[in-house]
Specification:
Number of domains: 2
Distance between the termini: 22 Å
CATH topology of the largest domain: Glutathione S-transferase Yfyf (Class Pi), Chain A, domain 2
Structural class: alpha+beta
Shape: globular
CATH class of the largest domain: Mainly Alpha
CATH architecture of the largest domain: Up-down Bundle
Number of helices: 9
Largest sheet: 4 strands, mixed
Radius of gyration: 17 Å
Order of helices and strands: EHEEEHHHHHHHH
Number of strands: 4
Helix content: 55-70%
């Protein structure tokens, strides 16, 4: 299994990776206990889809965290969702979409578009890029992210409206988690890797946001983050 190579983006502020998709894959691998070699890339552009994470395995290069997980499950037979019913899998899928395709963009907005956050985030997220090049690509990268936000649709809203969207997502996650140790119940599954990766990248970093403020007020979310970190990252 040592020939499984995972390409990820750099961490910072105590996080294994500041990319929630990279952290999602690493957390998933720890949940299913698959050993891997980790390579930290300065940029995501060397991957087969120009994004991180991506893996190399048995001569294959596979991009996109979701497709990587599908490949690992088919190749190694690991399925942390095995105990879930069909309806529970459907709920977990819907929760994944909420987190990855909605809440994620509110996090991106706070990091890249809020001026005070951008000043600190810029040098951390581009920290492995040489300083002279970093000064050139930082504004280009920011303009690219602004286009992505508008293309998604969330970037067309006001800052208050974006934060209201993120706060509603946080409330939904907290309400569904309730007093369960993991999102779907007593045992960790794939959705826990997703929820942890994205929530930790909101709650455990020095980025100011009303979305983060609300998340930190939910004790069950704080405890969930600590539970995953203790069990899989200790």
């Amino acid at each position: 299994m040592s020939d499984l190579v995972v390409h990820t983006l750099a961490g910072g502020w105590g996080m294994s990776s500041l990319s929630p998709f990279c952290l999602k894959l690493e957390t998933y691998l720890r949940i299913v206990d698959l050993p891997f070699q980790k390579i930290v890339d300065a940029t995501p552009f060397s991957g087969p889809k120009g994004k991180a994470p991506w893996i190399e395995h048995e001569g294959k290069k596979i991009g996109d965290s979701g497709f990587i997980i599908e490949y690992l499950e088919s190749r190694f037979g690991c399925d942390p969702n095995a105990a879930l019913s069909a309806s529970e899998r459907a709920v977990a899928c819907a929760m994944r979409r909420l987190i990855e395709e909605n809440l994620y963009w509110t996090m991106v907005y706070d990091r890249w578009m809020v001026e005070n956050n951008w000043r600190s985030f810029r040098d951390v997220v581009l920290g492995k890029v040489p300083a002279p090049i970093r000064q050139l690509i930082a504004p280009l990268a920011r303009r690219g992210v602004r286009r992505q936000l508008k293309g998604h649709g969330i970037g067309l809203h006001s800052q208050d409206e974006i934060h209201a969207i993120g706060r509603k997502d946080i409330g939904a996650i907290a309400d569904f988690l309730g007093d369960k140790p993991f999102v779907m119940g007593a045992t960790a599954s794939e959705i826990d890797a997703i929820a942890y990766a994205f929530l930790a990248n909101i709650m455990n970093v020095p980025i100011d946001s009303p979305v983060k403020d609300l998340a930190l007020k939910h004790k069950n979310l704080v405890d969930f983050i600590a539970r995953i970190q203790t069990r899989y990252f200790a």
